Amino acid sequence: xxxxxxxxxxxxxxxxxxxxxxxxxxxxxxxxxxxxxxxxxxxxxxxxxxxxxxxxxxxxxxxxxxxxxxxxxxxxxxxxxxxxxxxxxxxxxxxxxxxxxxxxxxxxxxxxxxxxxxxxxxxxxxxxxxxxxxxxxxxxxxxxxxxxxxxxxxxxxxxxxxxxxxxxxxxxxxxxxxxxxxxxxxxxxxxxxxxxxxxxxxxxxxxxxxxxxxxxxxxxxxxxxxxxxxxxxxxxxxxxxxxxxxxxxxxxxxxxxxxxxxxxxxxxxxxxxxxxxxxxxxxxxxxxxxxxxxxxxxxxxxxxxxxxxxxxxxxxxxxxxxxxxxxxxxxxxxxxxxxxxxxxxxxxxxxxxxx
Length: 355
Ligand SMILES: *Cc1c(COP(=O)(O)O)cnc(C)c1O
Hints:
Blueprint: E1 4-5, H1 15-26, H2 46-59, E2 66-71, H3 74-86, E3 90-95, H4 98-107, E4 112-118, E5 140-143, E6 145-146, E7 151-152, E8 163-166, E9 181-187, E10 198-203, H5 220-225, H6 235-251, H7 253-274, E11 278-280, E12 291-296, H8 304-313, E13 316-317, E14 328-331, H9 338-354
The structure holds pyridoxal-5'-phosphate.
């Protein structure tokens, strides 16, 4: 049976990206050796990281003066590296979910943290609006897509300070005005690659402004100076990222990804809103086009497990909601197909007809 992958992360990648990675692991570029067994400093690997960096800059139209880094440690390590490198005295954080909260927790180790707004009291079902950003902070940190709750800030905010963003689960799904940010970071396993690499886009002249000493590996300048090769980088995930970046470019870049994301979301949210069994969980204007969360309507609550089993029997994978929201979550990252969304919708319709 054909499987439709709605996993929240690690998640779907285009089949061609997986196949090219598999090939490179068996025999890289026809050199008779695996990508996994050659030096990261070899003449065979250097072009991989160079092209990946160039494609990131091309796809996101990154202005001059920024570096693209490929690091280890996941987005979670960035929660600590960001304040280590950027927080002098005070930073502002928008609390839109568990990931934002984790980022705030680390920042508090380095200075004062102002929570500009929070939707925690409503289980993060909306993006707070109408708040003011203090002007005396070193940066405002936002989480552009809240993977667990299914809310998204799908635009570049206008605030009077520099921004830093965790874009782990929606990077490369829309054009971004990078110039508004001192740093953008993303764990790769949601829209870029397999787990193991984190991409960081950092403004060079925003670095080196804090007084504290920074351990070598946690200092962005180390990685800027060494082109992400201070130590051995995660070569296989970087290669997968390269193949995925090439794939995204061939599809028409982030504008095409954006269009496709909106089409997919319209199909699935359209059915959530139409079907008497289901309802969405977040404020309509804040609905994520990457993670689509929904639950059974109250009068059908007891059918939750039955629907999950039914969907699984139809080939749907990973539609169970996160434990802090319950219900269902259909993650529709860049490689998700219209066909996959239609299959999910067909499944929801068929289940409705049975009840
Ligand atoms: C998954 C996720 C993270 C954590 O990423 P790791 O790479 O596992 O550390 C952080 N932020 C967001 C928005 C995420 O979706």
